Every structure is written in structure tokens, then in C-alpha cells.
Amino acid sequence: MTGAPPALPSWQARREAGARRHLVRLMAWLCRHLGWRVGAMLLYPITLWFFLADGAARAASRRYLGRVMGKKPGVWAVFRHFHTFAQTVLDRFFLLDGDGKTRFEIGIEGIDHLARATAAGKGVLLLGAHLGSFDLLRLAAGRSAPAPVRMVMHHRERDALTALFEACSPDFAASVIALPAAGEDGIALALALRETLAAGGTIGLLADRPAAGQQALAVDFLGSPALFPLGPFRLAAATGAPVLLGFGLRLGRRRYLVRIEPLAEVIPRARTSDDVMGYRVCGPWAALSPYVIHYAERLAALCREHPYNWFNFHDVWEIPRDAEPIGGPFRRSSHPRRSHPNGVGGGGIHHHRADG
């Protein structure tokens, strides 16, 4: 007998409004026929519409900006956060559409890390985040990789925007590895991951937001514990694939910086226990904790450098009410709580017992 399905986190439960789908299609039509400059001008009223319509996203943006900036953000700062996201979506459209008349200035740092990691021919894991443009990272990295970069995405993210991008670029759909929906098994996912790595390909995963039912670890992020999925790190440990961090940062008008950094040549398999930041962590997740912590630290540092680039318009500091200090992974429960504003426990590592 199986129990009730795990409660959906707020970002996964939020449904796409019909008006939003129509706006996306209208914006795409106007951009394709009138060009990038007209699209950029249209972003202001469209951003204002989303800004006024989505109170939950406004509140999440305000909380995040307050943490990353160390002060209460004004209305303009929150609007700028929304508008920066809209600008990356516009740029993403033209990058995938292959419009040679639209010029972008793209700098790349650390591509040598990818070249060295792929030289062995056993595949690479590239961990990104909802920071800047992950599609730009995929396109830039793919030019220097011996095999294409394939992104692992949730079904929920295959919305109107994703459908639009698939229409823009015939290669986009082939570059996506879909995570199974609720009730589906993971056989197709496992086969796709195995085939991609066996062919020496690069698998891109966003590692800053756990979905329902996923094991996660809460570590310090911008001053308080936040949830990070263990799946990408468990995949690395199971496959022995080298792990890189990758981010496509927006610097300004059609200006981006792709930054690739090493995380681990190999993430070791599970050990019985380990010391993490002075705490004794037990269980098969112990060996993963330092890598999750490092990922969260690098993400926090880049958020401080580019505060308007993080497009996770949800409260990642929602921690299950019955979370306990130190001990292992947890799955999201249906009883979220706000984390303490001053953080919990010096090491900032928490867990929740797995459902069932």
C-alpha cells in the first residue's frame, strides 16, 4: 500500500494562468516580427502586469532581496528584479531563435574546466541554478564540449515558455531530459541519464530547488537554512562523473558572462558518518553534505555579486515544522514553517525523516 503523495512545494503547486500563456505568445509574435528593440520596450508594461498580478512572487522577491542586500528593498528594487528576469527571457528567445541580427556580448570563464572534465569521455554533471540564463550556459558550454549539454527539467517547467522555445529551436526539445511526473516511474529518466553520460555528454541540473518527494538537505544560505535537493549529488556519487558548477550571469543589456567552476572530480559514495562544520552527520548522505554546502556558498556569493540575477521567486527558506538539527535528508512535508531570521544552529544543517 502506498501513502498519500507528498505535498507540492509552493513553486511546484502554482499553476500557469491562461492570461500568462497568451501574453507569452503575443510577446513572441511581436518579437519575431518587430525585433529585439521593440520587445525590450514592451517588457515594461508586461513586467508591470506580472508584478501587480503575482503577490506571492512579489513577497518572495522582497524577502530574498532583503537578505542579499542587507536592507529592506523598495518597490523599485522588486520591480527591477522582475524586469531583469523578463530581460533574460527576451534574450533567451533571440538566442534560441538564431536571429543573427541580434548581437550579444558573451564572455566565458572556466571553459577549460569543462574541456578537462570531458576529456576522459565518461560524461560530466553541470550544476546550475535559477541564476541568470541556464540556456545561455548550455549553448556556450555546448560549443566547447565533445557532446551536447542536456538539461534535466521538471514537467511543471514545460509551460508556455518552454513550448515557445521548443518552437524556436529544433534542438531544444532534444536537449531536455524530462523528470517523471507524479505517479510515473523513473525508468525513462534513468536510461536517458545513463545514455548521455555513456556517450561522454554533459548533463545540466538546477540544484537550488527541491521538488515534492525529493530528498533534500537544509544548509545555510544567505543567513538562514534553506532546502537544497540531494538528487544531483547522489547522481554524481552513483555515477562517478566529475561535477562542475555553471552559471550564465546577466551583466547588462545583451551582455552575459558564462562562468564554469570545478566542484569535485569525484563525489565519494556514502559513508556511515562524517564531520561537517563541527557536527557529526550520520547516514548515507554524510559524504554529500560538504558538496551541498559548497554549492550553497557559491550560489550565495554570486547572488551577492549579482542580486537581481536569481530568479527563484519562491521562499526557499520554508523548512518543515518538525525539522531536527543534524542527522540526515528529509522530504518536504505538508507543514512548512518560516526559518528563524537569525538562522538555526551554527552549522545550518537540518533534516527531516523521509516519508514512509
In short:
This protein is of the alpha/beta class and 356 residues long. The chain contains 12 helices and 16 strands. α2 (18-34) packs antiparallel against α3 (36-53) and α4 crosses α5.
Describe what this molecule looks like in 3D:
- The protein is an alpha/beta fold and 356 residues long.
- It has one domain.
- The protein contains 12 helices and 16 strands.
- The protein has a 7-stranded mixed sheet with strand order 1-9-8-2-5-3-4, with helices on both faces.
- Strand 6 and strand 7 form a beta hairpin.
- The protein is globular, with a radius of gyration of 20 Å.
- The N terminus and C terminus are likely disordered.
Order of helices and strands: HHHHHEHEHEHHEHEEEHEEEEHEEEEE
The overall average pLDDT, rounded, is 74
How does the helix and strand content classify structurally? alpha/beta
Multimerization status: single chain
Residues in helix, %? 40-55%
Our estimate of the beta-strand percent is: 15-25%
Q: Which key phrases capture this entry?
A:
356 residues, alpha/beta, 7-stranded mixed β-sheet, 3-stranded antiparallel β-sheet, 42% helix, disordered N terminus
